[in-house]
Amino acid sequence: MGFDFDFDLLRELTETSGVPGYEDRVRDVVRRELAERTDEVRTDAMGNVVGTVHADGGDDTDGDGNYEVAVAAHMDEIGFMVKHVTDDGFLKLDALGGWDARVLRAQRVRVHADGGDVTGVIGSVPPHTLSDEEKGTEESVEDAVVDLGMDAEAVAEAVSVGDLVTMEQSTVELGDCVTGKALDDRVCVFAMLEAASRIEDPDVTVHFCATVQEEVGLRGATALGVDVDPDLAVALDVTVASDVPGVKEDKHVTELGEGTAIKLKDSSVITTPKVHRRLRDVAEAEGIDHQLEVLPSGGTDTAGFQNTNGAKPVGAISVPTRYLHTVTETAHGDDIADTVDLLTAFLDSETGEHDYSL
């Protein structure tokens, strides 16, 4: 089967842990890759990583250097923090990011403790013992209990309040697709890294930004909007692809295999019309499969750059993904490749002379 991109790197990125505020492990991978693909790499106090490719030329619109473009994709994945250890040695969790609690039951997890990672499972009460009323109860993260398979004394020695918890899942090929945990948003971090490796002697300075704490409120991108202060920003994130049985066509948002998605809006941002128009023009000129995205709810790093440090033109490119915020997020290989192609072509054609003002 195979893909036209580095599947091993994508697998490493998705399988590596990094919940909001504790992106350390995946940040190490991103720093390693950006160091090979950009002119300089820096990390800020929040943990955002910025790899910069300096301009070979280009227009200076504000008198403080070359025209600057920020490309952003977030490193953090949804996960949990241990909030309580029961007297019986079970863990209670606080969510870091938005979980669909229906998918948590009977999942294997990894607890990141000071003494090393510990495997656990989120327990599930056998249906034989549930009443009809209990069977119909809506589940929540509050109800989740992690079983480490140890007695209470051993658990107390191994785990403490504040330890992080991530889902334990491998990333594999699934037909023409990739499936696993944390494709949101590591598949876009991957696309950004691939584009960075293809850019040579750009006319503008490009900052490739791997952001933190997106899943808890776009916090890293908002800080970077001030610190990087670009003339133009393009964010990458996954988007809904509900093209599955039981969902009406007008609720699909995007469809797998139909190309990369050019965002028109989500609940956090309305992208700049001239930016998304140019993204469409580039895709059409390069023969890159694409579709338009109108996302009813859900925010992205795009909003973090739009007005944080004054009004800025923004655009966004999305990877259509099924089963978001589960451990089986699924994206089509062609859509991933199209996302890399569009981002690369857009950056290669950016001169700093396009007028995005309204």
Mean pLDDT across residues: 92
How many DSSP helices? 9
CATH superfamily label of the largest domain: Zn peptidases
- What is the CA–CA distance across the termini? 46 Å
Active site: 214
GO molecular function, one term: aminopeptidase activity
Pfam families: Peptidase_M42
Protein name: M42 family metallopeptidase
Short description:
With 358 residues, the protein is an alpha+beta fold. The protein has nine helices and 17 strands.
Walk me through this protein's architecture.
- The chain has 358 residues and is of the alpha+beta class.
- The chain has two domains: 7-77 and 181-348, Zn peptidases (Aminopeptidase, 3-Layer(aba) Sandwich); 79-167, Beta Barrel (Elongation Factor Tu (Ef-tu), domain 3), CATH 2.40.30.
- 26% of the residues lie in helices and 27% in strands.
- The chain has nine helices and 17 strands.
- The chain has helices at 7-15, 24-37, 132-135, 152-158, 183-198, 219-227, 273-286, 302-306, 333-348; strands at residues 40-43, 49-53, 68-74, 79-85, 91-96, 108-113, 116-122, 145-147, 164-167, 172-174, 177-180, 205-211, 232-240, 260-265, 290-294, 314-321, 329-332.
- The chain has an eight-stranded mixed β-sheet with strand order 1-2-12-3-13-16-14-15, with helices on both faces.
- Strand 4 and strand 5 (91-96) form a beta hairpin.
- Helix 1 crosses helix 5 (183-198), helix 2 (24-37) packs parallel to helix 5 and helix 5 (183-198) crosses helix 9.
- The longest helix is centred in the middle third of the chain and has 16 residues, at 183-198.
- It is globular and about 65 Å long.
- The N and C termini lie far apart (46 Å).
- The mean pLDDT is 92.
- The active site is at 214 (proton acceptor).
- This is M42 family metallopeptidase.
